[in-house]
């Protein structure tokens, strides 16, 4: 795959002008928490990480987490079904990434909803301080779902003085449908000085239905209306001690034009609606006792879903997933050891009509973990060791070890590498002997399997990070081996529409190997530039065939300019060719490129106007190939206003 822009920018980075050093380092050290559940600067973190800052979120018309991270190194997208998309880290399925908000688990909506992407939009952009993404298994800290990586949304803190912002955005794509509106507000400040503070946010988003280019009677991208809100009250009873009470609620309504599966003469058009509501109440304590620090808390999350098809006479289908979690961890130091010990209790309950006997399933997980960050006798070398045990009442105990070495070779160069294991527990539906539901538009029936074992991964990586003056560069190589991947397998009436029966089984094994490179530089005259490139070799270990819907090559590049109240940027994302099966034959999906242009004017210290065009060339995936399982937004012109106070 040819990438002239990437080559051009790499050449620019190595030119004398780009590498010119100054006595003043224009970069601030990025601080992260997700790699070790401990605050540290990014170059010391025991993991390959990407950080999306608040400034980067404001630069683009970001709607959700997918928009925020999609141009990061190591990230690709895949179709989740129903016109939705999922995030793949290093070629791993979307369900292999654990989503956190301030370190708390987000309900895995895929446990309730097939083809789900609802967890991507629970926190609106104006409430986010930064997003931290760990590429690689993190089950040694976080348990199930973290076998591919972790995305942790860090929200904005309660502040000592009152501040806030209001954001308005409107955008229209080329062609019919797909218009978007967004209105959001955020406020934070003290209620009682030095004692009690609050932060709160509200957000409303609306996206119109986009007809499919191949068949306007169907949706290319579904309509969406989302309303989210939340508040956190932060109480400080004494210095270095804080109690937070948080409340969150979101309502996400989807609508799409669909057609029943089966013979063409029997197919019927209908409207499919999904209404998903999420609520969470959370209380947490943080305290520093000089010799140790303690975090403890509890939270309850509920996810309710109601869906209906307009062609069906049956009442709407309803599901509810509730999670009750109690957790705690303590940090302390002993000589050259920085220790972290913690535990978690999690109880999940699913109420679903597809659980045909009782209508309900539940499971309890008890977890303990220990992490030791050791300063080795060799100067500037640290070793992080971790082990977590998750005891699941249905399949027993799963152990997740981790070892990671970080060597600060110099003030500018860091070498790092390590080994880790991860796992993903089967969902309550997959494990249930009473689960029965039709899939594939009614082509087959799927049943649960109580004999399922967790999906597991073993990963090793080696990387470097170089940061000096205006230039920052990182590179990582990795290999990840997956076992016991859960798939459905036919066991009776195979190939017979409406009669075929499938069951969840552990069958697949895969090997994913890759290389990641990212570099950014601050240039003279207010310019800055960045580029990243990812290579992925993903293979089914049983057939030795390339895995489907995983591009081998992907890259992004950005050129920015900022002078006084004015700023502008040009971005390009290139997604390489990938494979997909059609009628038992393998077909190649072509590569595609997306170009984006945007700018901002800081009218006053409180008012900023932004405008731009996403997908400048109006790239339409459905025209390049009908086999793409998702579509990109067409050429999209947007305007936004941000008022800070």
From TrEMBL:
Signal peptide coordinates: 1-20
TonB-dependent receptor-like beta-barrel domain span: 249-616
Subcellular location: Cell outer membrane
Gene Ontology molecular function: siderophore uptake transmembrane transporter activity
Spans annotated as Disordered: 208-240
CDD domains per UniProt: ligand_gated_channel
Gene3D superfamilies: TonB-dependent receptor, beta-barrel domain, TonB-dependent receptor, plug domain
One Pfam family from the record: Plug
GO biological process: siderophore transmembrane transport
InterPro entries in UniProt: Beta-barrel_TonB, Beta-barrel_TonB_sf, Plug_dom, Plug_dom_sf, TonB-dep_rcpt-like
Keyword Signal: yes
Major location (coarse): membrane
Membrane disposition: Multi-pass membrane protein
Keyword set, alphabetical order: Cell outer membrane, Ion transport, Membrane, Receptor, Signal, TonB box, Transmembrane, Transmembrane beta strand, Transport
Family: Belongs to the TonB-dependent receptor family.
PANTHER family: COLICIN I RECEPTOR-RELATED, TONB-DEPENDENT OUTER MEMBRANE RECEPTOR
Record's protein name: TonB-dependent receptor
């Amino acid at each position: 795959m040819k990438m002239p822009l990437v080559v051009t920018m790499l050449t620019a980075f190595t030119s004398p002008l780009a590498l010119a050093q100054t006595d003043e380092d224009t970069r601030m050290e990025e601080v992260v928490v997700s790699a070790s559940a401990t605050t540290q600067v990014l170059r010391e973190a025991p993991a390959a990480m990407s950080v999306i800052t608040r400034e980067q979120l404001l630069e683009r018309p970001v709607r959700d987490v997918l928009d925020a991270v999609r141009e990061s190194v190591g990230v690709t997208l895949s179709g989740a079904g129903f016109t939705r998309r999922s995030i793949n880290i290093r070629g791993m399925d979307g369900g292999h990434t654990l989503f956190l908000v301030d370190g708390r688990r987000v309900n895995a909506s895929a446990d309730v909803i097939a083809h789900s992407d609802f967890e991507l939009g629970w926190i609106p952009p104006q409430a986010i301080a930064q997003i931290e993404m760990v590429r690689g298994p993190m089950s040694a800290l976080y348990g199930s779902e973290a076998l591919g990586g972790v995305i942790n949304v860090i929200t904005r803190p309660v502040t000592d003085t009152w501040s806030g912002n209001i954001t308005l955005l409107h955008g229209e794509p080329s062609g019919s449908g797909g218009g978007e509106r967004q209105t959001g507000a955020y406020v934070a400040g003290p209620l009682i000085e030095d004692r009690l503070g609050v932060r709160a946010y509200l957000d409303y988003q609306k996206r119109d239905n986009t007809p499919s280019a191949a068949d306007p009677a169907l949706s290319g991208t579904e309509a969406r209306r989302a309303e989210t809100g939340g508040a956190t009250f932060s109480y400080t009873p004494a210095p270095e001690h804080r109690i937070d009470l948080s409340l969150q609620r979101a309502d996400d309504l989807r609508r799409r034009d669909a057609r029943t599966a089966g013979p063409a003469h029997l197919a019927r058009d209908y409207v499919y609606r999904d209404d998903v509501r999420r609520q969470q109440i959370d209380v947490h304590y943080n305290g520093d006792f000089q010799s140790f620090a303690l975090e403890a808390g509890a939270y309850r999350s509920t996810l309710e879903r109601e869906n209906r098809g307009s062609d069906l006479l049956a009442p709407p289908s309803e599901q509810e997933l509730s999670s009750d979690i109690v957790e705690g961890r303590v940090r302390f130091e002993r000589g050259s050891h920085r220790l972290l010990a913690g535990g978690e209790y999690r109880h999940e309950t699913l109420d679903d009509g597809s659980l045909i006997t009782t209508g309900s399933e539940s499971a309890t997980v008890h977890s303990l973990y220990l992490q030791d960050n050791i300063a080795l006798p060799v100067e500037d070398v640290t070793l992080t060791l971790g082990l977590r045990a998750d005891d699941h009442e249905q399949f027993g105990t799963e152990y997740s070890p981790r070892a990671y070495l970080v060597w600060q070779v110099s003030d500018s160069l860091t070498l790092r590498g390590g080994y880790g294991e991860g796992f993903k527990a089967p969902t309550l539906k997959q494990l249930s002997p009473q689960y029965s539901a039709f899939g594939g538009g009614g082509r087959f029936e799927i049943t649960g399997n109580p004999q399922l074992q967790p999906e597991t991964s073993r990963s090793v990586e080696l990387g470097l990070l170089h940061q000096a003056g205006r230039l920052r560069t990182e590179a990582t190589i990795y290999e990840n081996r997956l076992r016991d991947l859960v798939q459905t397998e036919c066991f009776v009436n195979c190939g017979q529409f409406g009669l075929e029966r499938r069951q969840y089984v552990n069958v697949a094994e895969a090997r994913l190997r890759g290389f990641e490179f990212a570099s950014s530089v601050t240039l003279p005259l207010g310019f800055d530039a960045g580029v990243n490139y990812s290579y992925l070799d993903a293979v089914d270990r049983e057939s030795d065939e390339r895995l489907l819907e995983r591009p081998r090559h992907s890259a992004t590049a950005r050129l920015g300019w900022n002078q006084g109240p004015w700023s502008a940027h040009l971005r390009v994302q290139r997604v390489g060719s990938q494979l997909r099966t059609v009628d038992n034959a393998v077909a190649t999906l072509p590569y595609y490129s997306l170009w984006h242009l945007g700018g901002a004017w800081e009218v006053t210290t409180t008012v900023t106007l932004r405008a731009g065009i996403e997908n400048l060339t109006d790239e339409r995936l459905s025209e390049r190939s009908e086999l793409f399982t998702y579509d990109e937004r067409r050429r999209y012109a947007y305007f936004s206003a941000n008022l800070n106070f």
